[in-house]
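ok so for the tutorial part 2 we go from a plain amino acid sequence to predicted structure tokens. step 1 is just haveing the sequence, like this:
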Amino acid sequence: MNAPPSTPTPPPASYRSVLAVGEFRAVFAAEILAVLGQVAAQLTLSVLVYGRTGSPLLSALVFALGFLPHLFGAALFSSITDRLPARPLLAVTALVQSATLAAMAIPGLPIPILLLLLLLSGTIAPLYQGTRAAMLPDVLPGDGYPLGRSLLRMAGQTAQIAGFAFGGALLALVGPATALLIGGGALAVSALLMWTGVRHRPARGSGAGRSLTRESLAGGARVLRSPELRRLLALSCLPPALAVTPEALAVPLTDASGGGPAQAGMLLAALPVGMIVGELTAGSLLSARTRARLAVPMAFGVFATMPLFLFAPGTTATVLLLLPCGLGFAYTLGLDRLVLDATPDEARGAVLTLFSATTMVAQGLGYAAAGALAELLPSHMVVAVAGVCGIAVVALAGRRPRRAG
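step 2 — the prediction. this is what the tokens look like for a chain of 405 residues:
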């Protein structure tokens, strides 16, 4: 008797196969444009507010309002990402952010109105990010999802660095109003790419008869009630919040070791370079199952060398110590898979929106906490303390909860 023909096993996903998907290429290009536009606009607004008020506090508030509203928007409105189809929601949220930047370009707009528009943009941003994250498993099923997330992270980080240079060039060439309009134009093109490049899919849930805010808060409660999602949320937001400490203190660290702006730039580049190398290596050489199994051990790598800052290393040693910290961020590839597996399909948008927003806000708070602690301790000691705290966080959050039954 002949054995039935076996179903061929699909080849493992790779960065090449992910980039071969037309829908993902549209999402990838839209992400680059959106980050470029947002970062350039944020820099422009900071310069504009400082120029009109002379207040460092209000200028810094521009950057704070880029982080803090994320959690507000995620907590109150995240369930909309499951109620509505992804394609129109992505396009509309990007267009609203584009319109807020265009409105900021109106000459003579009062500073409080500028900050309110920035608050609106920051509240909407997590809905865009959460919708995109929830849609990505449909665009890249199976093992392609974490690789797609990895590429979007690398593109976003590169675009963020380029965005500051882009914004500075715009300010020098065309002035704040035109720079804001160009930033808004980049977001409008991003919306167009989402509308034309992403296939229509129905919403995952209806939400009929339920309050949007109540359902969004229930999504947050679902995460907090689930031991598995709680630990994954801690692994998602706390390591990045602690790992930003060397970046937050780049200038005082290099100043203490006798370096200047060029050395500070090298320090700031070390972590992102390590992150890109780490993610590309893990995504190319490790299977999806191995990446998920090694997520926690690799997360320890983020902080493995930071306690050595206790010995006040010089600038060159500092850069060399930060490179392996960046390599450890390859843990996010396995973490993305674990989060998706632990999330019910009907709540995918709300949960991933909350994860994205919490991580963003935690990083903002991490910058603030590093600066505050550096008022009391030398900068190198603050980095060492952050490293020890990071190791403790990973050790606690990395423990799997016992299964019921």
